[in-house]
Amino acid sequence: MTASFRPPSRRRALGLMLAHGAALAAAAALPAAIMTVGPAASALDFSDAAVPLPPHPRSPAADGVRLLVLPFEGIPTTTGDAIYREMRRKASKRKYSLAMQLSDPASFRVLIYFSAVTTGSGTTILYRIDIFDPSGRPVTRLFGEELGPTATGDPWSGVDKKTVEHLAGRLGEQLQAWVTRAAD
Asked: What does UniProt give as the signal peptide span (predicted)?
């Protein structure tokens, strides 16, 4: 008898999505806990999480802010490279530039974490963007999700060129919206 793949039931899919969401929430808390510093710092101290960010002292210069995008986490290298190349291609139309090497000076460092899960409606790609100042202090955290084509087995196998282009565009839009945010 040959085993065949059967998509999970709605109840099972919901359970998987909830479990995936809990895992993503735990992953979101981990870097903040690791980066907590100071003698009285607690790994679970999130008292400053709701404090709004101060506005930029001035609008970005004509050539924009320089961002250093660190290697992606949680994504296959080939897919990550394709997204990064597309982000670099589209960056020339944005109010920021991307640093070419890890040793290049930058206004901010950007670390992007990815996670993907296959659901009945396609592959859901969740991402978190952590932005740090040059000294490594966390500045802000952005979240997003995209829906890609359905995949069997590895959820990343369903990510095609169109999804890569769309995802890179969304990441770039979110970074630009943050860089050019208005003073409150």
From this structure: 1-25
Q: What is the distance between the alpha carbons of residues 148 and 139, in angstroms, rounded to a whole number?
A: 29
Domain boundaries, the chain: 62-184
Look at phi and psi of residue 7 and say left if phi exceeds 0, alpha if psi is from -120 to 50, else beta.
Answer: beta
Q: Which residue has the tokens 């999480």?
A: 49
pLDDT digits (tens, 9 = 90+) for 85-103: 999 998 888 888 898 888 8
Residues in the chain, overall count: 184
The answer, as to whether pTM is greater than 0.85, is no
Strands (DSSP E) along the chain, which ranges? 65-69, 96-98, 108-119, 122-132, 138-148
- Are 158 and 52 spatial neighbours (Cβ–Cβ below 8 Å)? no
DSSP 8-class letter at 119? E
